[in-house]
Amino acid sequence: MGARRGGGWIRAAAALCTALIAAAGCTGEPRPPDPTPTDPDTAAAFALLEAFSDRMIGEGAPAVLIDVRYGGKSWTHAAGVRSLETREPATASDPVRVGGITESFVAVSVLKLVAEGKLGLDDPVSRYLPEFGSVLHPPGPVSVRQLLTHESGLPDFTDPLLASGSWEQVTVRKVSLEQQLTLAATVPWEPRLARIFNYSRTNYAALALIVERLRGQDIAQALDTDIARPLGLAATRLGGPGLPGMVHGYVTVGGARLDATMPEWQAEAPSSGAVSTLPEVNRFYAALLTGELLPPDSVTAMKGGYLQYYGFALRRWNNTCNNRFYYGLPGDTDGYGTIVMTSEDGKTQLAMAVAYPPEPPTLGVNPLISELTDVSQDALNHLC
């Protein structure tokens, strides 16, 4: 399998040379490759990431992409290919499907409505979605806050969806937000799950419907208005066709390798359907945590309480550099695993995406996402 890997070190020398061409006689010849980091901890961080990438490629992953920002510098890495059919080499800024990271985008749109006084976190969902009770028949009131934190007990619509046919049949079905709620209604509620974390993609289907009703535009347009356009994220979108240069993901079904890059049922799913690039998701989380997108109290609410590891579509991990936290989300979906971690000041970041080795799709979480998470946290804690 073809592979490319490399690191991008931000240096002032190139800019200085450009500014002084006439006075200092710069030749205009290509700048020599950036040096390998000499700091042992920094070198160890990148060695960890490269070793993980090598192992993934060796195990059949089509591509591994990494984008790191630290101390005003950057380091990027790309290995593998965009497509197993074309064998075109992957680059670190290629678009990928980011899975559950989509939920952070949706949560920002929800919190913008809260900041504008149009939505209350502790209001019942039925205030904004009158059909919520008649369709889903919850055993008790469900609040907007409970949807955000996955503490509603709402059944996951993907269970009956993926059980309704073969992967090939399901993947070409378009499933609207309303249909996602209807599918969830076919699964009995388990009241004991309410008020404890129990992940369900249906929570974010309901939140996306609330945003649509209050904004008068579909969720893809709302995310573009609230996030992509203000931050200049040209490759970040929900729905629509695949982007040029996109890294393809694959699954194996019945012994055959199938392309899982743009399944119709996830094309506009607010729980997992977004496409972006690693530089853009890093830009998004830095902007979120430093207050570019939301007021400070909303950012604090998204982070969750001190004893919570999951707030409003934000998870946290220990930052041993300053005894604080990294914030972000993992994104696991058919064919892809993505992880993004950002320090509270937005200055230290790591985003990694792996096009998984083609394996049979599963209703559960691919165990490789835990490995992505562990190696990312370990690498970041070497960059103190």
UniProtKB/TrEMBL annotation:
UniProt GO MF annotations: carboxypeptidase activity
Domain Beta-lactamase-related stretches: 52-359
Matching Pfam families: Beta-lactamase
Protein's UniProt name: D-alanyl-D-alanine carboxypeptidase
Highest taxon of the lineage: Bacteria
Keyword Protease listed: yes
Keywords of this entry: Carboxypeptidase, Hydrolase, Protease, Signal
UniProt xrefs under Gene3D superfamilies: DD-peptidase/beta-lactamase superfamily
Position of the signal peptide: 1-24
Alphabetized PROSITE patterns for the sequence: PROKAR_LIPOPROTEIN
Source species of the chain: Pseudarthrobacter equi
